[in-house]
Amino acid sequence: MPRLQSTVVRLADSVVTEIEKQILDGALRPGDRIPSERKLAEDFGVSRPSIREAIQKMVAKGMLITRHGGGTKVTDKLDAPFINPWQDMVKDHPMLHRDILEFREMLEGQAASLAAARATEADMARLDKAFAKLEAAYTGKDLGECVEADVAFHQIIAEASHNALIGHLTASLMAVIRDHVANNLKHLQVKPKQWEQLRKQHRAIWKSIKDNKPIEASNTAKAHSEFLRESIESNAIEEYRRISSLRRAGMN
Q: How far is CA 168 from each of CA 29, 125, 174, rounded to the nearest angstrom?
């Protein structure tokens, strides 16, 4: 019996490692429901007790959560420690906006460079699909669709870098600045030249990755992030001036 239990534990540890790899790779995301015990047992070629032991280990580590009638899902443990405090800090301390946007510039530049060097055929198929969806969204100008497509495009590039930290940090960062992305796109929609410039930047990033040009990919991604940073700062100044003028008008 002890030997059997030892075997179950060893197999369970192997299953834990494989499931964690899927979470790190982004194949399993926060909120995703993992397959049933039976399906996992078939996929990994182990017994259901081994699968049950693996799930219990991951629940204890906080990577999975099991709810009665709701199955077992991936938690946001890898992302939440970054997202939760920073969302509040950015909201309460506007001076952090520039710092975060500068960090985005560095992160996305590196992600694009690595994606251009490492992207597989499957990665490029996902990126092509995301770019086509982004183009369609920008043409239609539905703000919600534009935001979703924009975030997805950059996330897929991050995942194509095949660097787990870049993938998860990008997802966390986009969650923190999502409102800024939405407000900035809304601001740019009414400026045709800048809106078209934004589209061209996305195309340049996509093409440089597709052509396997890491340096060009990095430069185009950084230029895009710098353009967004300048646009957000300009939008903030315009909004401040608008409110100031309204305040003065109310005083007269």
A: 10, 21, 10
